[in-house]
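FAQ: What does a ligand-bound record look like?

Like this one, built around iron/sulfur cluster:
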Amino acid sequence: MSDPQTVSKSLASRHALRNVKAFRRTLLGWFARNGADYPWRQTEDPYAILVSEIMLQQTTIGSVIQNRRFERFLDTFPGLHSLAEASEPDLLRAWEGLGYYNRVRNLQRAAQTILAEHEGAFPATPEGLESLPGVGRYTAGAIASFAFNYPAPIVDANVSRLLSRLFDWREQIQTSGSQTRLWSWAGQLLDSDQPRSFNSALMELGQTFCTPRSPACPQCPVRDFCATREPEKLPLKRTRRAPVKVDEHVLFVQKRSGPVLLAQEGGTRRKGLWRLPERSHHQLADLPLVDTRHYGITHHKVTMHIYHCNPSHVPPPGKRTTEKFYSAREINELPMPSPFRKAVQALLQA
Ligand code: SF4
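The answer part, i.e. the structure of the complex:
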């Protein structure tokens, strides 16, 4: 007797692929009636689409839309030249609050590469686009299909989830075998006459109906094509690393006339941004604690302890670092990670 899982998997594959034309018709019909009118869907400009794709890599659509981050970034850097020539502080300031600042550095490097090596013209194929800094297989497929209507498949987190349920795929999706399978399905399902609309529709279905925790199967437009009976259990993923708790001890030092002491970040992740200066807990243990805040970064849960310190008694930094006093007006212009921006604003208003 065959393994039930194998039977279910092969039925799932045959079922969906046998009806692929009907699937496309159904999906595209639903999208034509219900697709969201996101600002990056109102353009075919590859530069704007590159910006939106990089911005949406680790930031939710809701947050980008609500704060008009896409439009504001394009107002600041309307094209390749303005982005390629931007100073680092201006670049980081324009990305503030979105986190993962290497994304905007890569965006600038991509603009510089297009100007220097492609005479300012975007590559129009996934292979050409993948040669740009910060552009992986998904982003290349997205720009190729959304900007050039090129028949390139895309697989992001939403599409992975949707496909693994549609085909009832019961293997961990991070493995290379699963990735090959998912990309292959995305390619086979793709409507090569309408890749722009098809890829948008697939992503949107994943965002709106086929959600991670409570998929809306009874209302889903493609439910007749879907093989899984246990959508909540899919996709199978490796267990996540447990968040690591970190304590951060920082100083709030303000001169009588108002300027606040800030330190410039080194390292790689937030290099160039300004923040409250950090010291060891031991150095600050005798100072008054004025605020405690919490924020998350990658898999860290950070507790920020803020101590008040007199400008004439600032403990020396443990490592070489740039520290300077800035007025409130100057701080507004400096790039700063948003947890520090909020903390400084609250302390200045206290
Ligand atoms: S029927 Fe449910 S599990 Fe299947 S694609 Fe639709 S929302 Fe996802």
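Follow-up question: can I read anything off the structure? Yes, for example: Confidence is low (pLDDT under 50) at residues 1-12.
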